[in-house]
UniProtKB/TrEMBL annotation:
This is Uridylate kinase. It comes from Thermosynechococcus sichuanensis E542. Homohexamer. The keyword Transferase applies. Residues 7-215 form the Aspartate/glutamate/uridylate kinase domain. Pfam families: AA_kinase. Its main location: cytoplasm. It is an enzyme of class 2 (transferase). CDD domains: AAK_UMPK-PyrH-Ec. GO terms for biological process: 'de novo' CTP biosynthetic process; UDP biosynthetic process. Catalyzes the reversible phosphorylation of UMP to UDP. It is found in: Cytoplasm. ATP binds at K11, L12, S13, G14, G54, R58, T161, Y167, D170. The gene is pyrH. Inhibited by UTP.
Length: 237
């Protein structure tokens, strides 16, 4: 079966990488994700990844505890690089060629972000992992995912989370909460639904990039989603 997509962007939150721990990285969880991503690449899908850093540090939390917000955000961005390198290591152990590109220069450990170079890597079948967010404080890695997806001309963003899609209420609190199969950007924005932050959704809306929200809790879902099986919730125009 030929995959539905040619080029995709996967957004992995930092929290996804910590498994059942309260903090940090669970290498076993990262290995499991890497093996699914390896299958996606083998299926011929050009795959770029934006990783978050919430398992290590969040700028907002630092600011709430009295830190300067911009400084705290830079620390958060640096945290994402640790996650990016961990994912790279897991993928390369599975013989998947990868490149980490960072939005804050760290040339001893990763390439700088260069758009045209990232596209070239993807064309050659390498997974490109974008670290250090957008390089700007006051943004999130969700917004980075929207920005990079637009820049590299990805057809779709896959937002991997802990819930199996977007609900009209919090499914953990409300047993009557209903999952959307699809919804519009405007609906997500006006109802403040937990898809991505509003900057990220607005950027996807302006550039007409659909977002597919799906759960990582079920093994095999990364492969299913990225190869085009209709799972989760699609947010689009
Ligand atoms: N961050 C930032 N600019 C960006 C991306 C991220 O300042 O373009 C910082 C911000 O402090 C954020 C942290 O990096 O809290 C980690 O990213 P995020 O919270 O988006 O990670 P996730 O929730 O996906 O784990």
């Amino acid at each position: 079966m030929s995959p539905k997509y040619r080029r995709v962007l996967l957004k992995l939150s930092g929290e996804a990488l910590m498994g059942n721990q309260n903090y940090g990285i669970d290498p076993k969880v990262v290995q499991a994700f890497a093996s699914e991503i390896a299958q996606v690449v083998q299926a011929g899908v050009q795959t770029a990844i934006v990783v978050g850093g919430g398992n290590i540090f969040r700028g907002m939390k630092g600011a709430a505890a009295g830190m300067d917000r911009a400084t705290a955000d830079y620390i958060g961005m640096i945290a994402t690089v640790m996650n990016a390198m961990t994912l790279q290591d897991a993928l390369e152990q599975m013989n998947v060629p990868t490149r980490v590109q960072t939005a804050i220069a760290m040339q001893e450990v990763a390439e700088p972000y260069i758009r045209r170079r990232a596209i070239r890597h993807l064309e050659k079948g390498r997974v490109v992992i974008f670290g250090a967010g957008s390089g700007n404080p006051f943004f999130t890695t969700d917004t980075t995912a929207a920005l990079r997806a637009a820049e590299i001309d990805a057809e779709v963003i896959f937002k991997a989370t802990k819930v199996d899609g977007v609900y009209d209420a919090d499914p953990h609190k409300n047993p009557n909460a209903r999952r959307y199969r699809s919804l519009t950007y405007t609906h997500a924005l006006t109802h403040n639904l937990a898809v991505m932050d509003s900057t990220a959704i607005a950027l996807c809306k302006d550039n007409d990039i659909p977002i597919i929200v799906f759960s990582l809790e079920t093994a095999g879902n990364i492969y299913r989603a990225l190869t085009g099986e209709p799972i989760g919730t699609m947010v689009g125009g």
